[in-house]
Amino acid sequence: MIKRKKSDYIIHSVDHAFDVLEAFRADEPELGVTQLAKILNLHKNNVFRILATLESRGYVEQNLRTGNYRLGLKAFEAGQAYLRHTSLLSVARPQMEILSSELRENSYLAVLRGDYVFYLDEVIADQTIQVISRLGTRVSPHCTATGKVFLAFMEAPLGEGLVETMTLEKMTSKTITDRRKLRSEIKKVAESGYAVDDEEWTEGLKCVAAPILDYYGKIQGTLSVSGPSDRLPEARIADEIINAVAGHAKEVSRKMGYLIGKAQD
Question: Taking the C-alpha atoms of 181, 183, 187 and 189 in order, what is their torsion angle to the nearest 10 degrees?
């Protein structure tokens, strides 16, 4: 027996209803029946019936002054329900696995808890020489790529407050312990969108991190890759690691609703 594809079961009227909903965008917040019919290549009567159905359920509403339609409260509630049930851990994990597979280096998900970076999840790469697990580790933000990303992307008063009050312990000969230099480094991270730990936490170990942003553009975590210095030379970091880490962090951010929220601004 030949198994039918899921696309064979599509209900076209429902499919068209979603086409109508998806036609409303930030640059086209209101649309009329004629506009929608033209955009979607549907008959005006069909569009009107779909809009009437969506309006009755609260997914669109009519502007009585212009006669055009816009998304209704139910559409917003549906989006918020998705975001509320989107777990950072579950969304990030698939991207971490892909990232580690691509680079053959360990990947990490970290959050900020008070004054410390906390490593929430990790994917261990298939390498003969393994990096010691960071899972469950707490570390001061000043000496890690992950921490510098948090300091760069936090709301300014909070980030500056941390820089002012935290102890800048010298972990290695490369650790930044001067607050003026740390502020300069944080500024660079904010401009570039990523941070590098060049053996600043542990000698012989490098790390690259990028932010994970939510619907409101607030940092919720970081995605990072770490490995021995000889496997992460400057050339590889510049040519491969940065783009991979930033790219997967952006994908996690997208799934957390970042681009949707940004489009509303």
Answer: 80
* Residue range 166-217, pLDDT digits in tens: 999 999 999 999 999 999 999 999 999 999 999 999 999 999 999 999 988 9
Q: Are the C-beta atoms of 31 and 69 separated by less than 8 Å?
A: yes
Distance of CA 246 to the CA centre of its chain: 10
Same domain, 121 and 37: no
The CA angle 110-116-117, to the nearest 5 degrees, is 15
CB within 8 Å of 168: residues ≥ 6 apart: 140, 142, 175, 176, 177, 178, 179, 182
Structural domain of 252: 86-264
Q: pLDDT by residue (tens digit) across 119-163?
A: 888 999 887 666 666 777 888 999 999 999 999 999 888 888 999
One-letter amino acid at 204 equals: G
* Domain count along the chain: 2
Residue 2 forms part of a structural domain:
no
Do both 76 and 199 map to the same domain? no
Q: What is the DSSP letter of 235?
A: H
| Chosen domain end from 47, 66, 81 | 81
How many other C-beta atoms are found inside a 10 Å radius of the C-beta of residue 20?
23
Domain match, 134 and 40 both: no
pTM: 0.70
